[in-house]
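Internal QA ticket QA-208
Title: Verify multi-chain structure generation after dependency bump
Assignee: T.L.

Test input:
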Amino acid sequence: MMSRSYLPHWMHLLGSPPVFYRFAGTLRPWLFWSALLLAAIGLYGGLVLAPADYQQGDAYRIIFIHVPCAWMSLFAYGCMAVAALVAMVWRVKLAEVIAMECAPVGAAFTLVTLITGSLWGKPMWGAWWTWDARLTSELVLLFLYLGVIGLDHAIEDRRRGARAASLLALVGVVNLPIVHYSVVWWNTLHQGSTVQLLGPSKIAPGMLWPLLTMALATHLYFFASVLNRTRVGLLAVEGGKEWARSIVAENAHA
Amino acid sequence: MHDWLAMGGYAQYVWPAYAVFFLVFAWDWLAPRFRRGRLLKELRGRLARERVRREKAAA
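Actual output:
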């Protein structure tokens, strides 16, 4: 076969829908159950073992879901954008499906971030919502996700829809630094970052480890959920192909 | 236990936050299952129609 490719052989293989379908099916339970186990450990640490905050009392315990979900709302967008770029430049069918299946998971993380933030804001700031930079840019992030999902569904041809929505996803990348730096650039009610990748974090160790455990759990869950969705997405796009037909036949009575 | 559930007076904020977290992700995990069920039903229908067409053409 004549092929001038920079990609290793296994990546070509994994890019094939039937191979990826089975690969995702094998990986999915491992990711899902380890996410669940880590979440159980992290939540036990956060809700039971961690001490109350000296300023916020027990209300701060919302942090253990709010902050990991907020990180994931950006991380999921980054993953969607990378897949969208591959979909647009190389027109890889698998990348189109992955980009579109990242969107609902990212939207779920963003929605949970906004709602839990609101439930935290009420007792601490005295308001469910305020139009400040952090909250508004996170709301824009939710609308970007919904825009990608909507555009994907609005166009009859699945592949064209996915590519049009991929373009929107790429344009929306501009919002990511705005969300991240909003607490630095503008005067805001929202507190600054508690955990720093570089340098010391402004949080007690007893609170930090449950937070990081939850962060790991939400990452694993994200990959499990995208694989879970991508399998169905691939079946939908490749419905007429031989491999999809054999899966339909295997599940004759499902 | 009762003290823990009271969350230092913030129970009405902490527990709904956790409930939303679990409900949203339960939906996220289950929605593709329902979609898969609908899709398989649709593809089965398509296969059956094709079979009928082939048999008619052969007859």
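Spot checks passed. Chain B is about 90% helix and 0% strand.
Status: verified.
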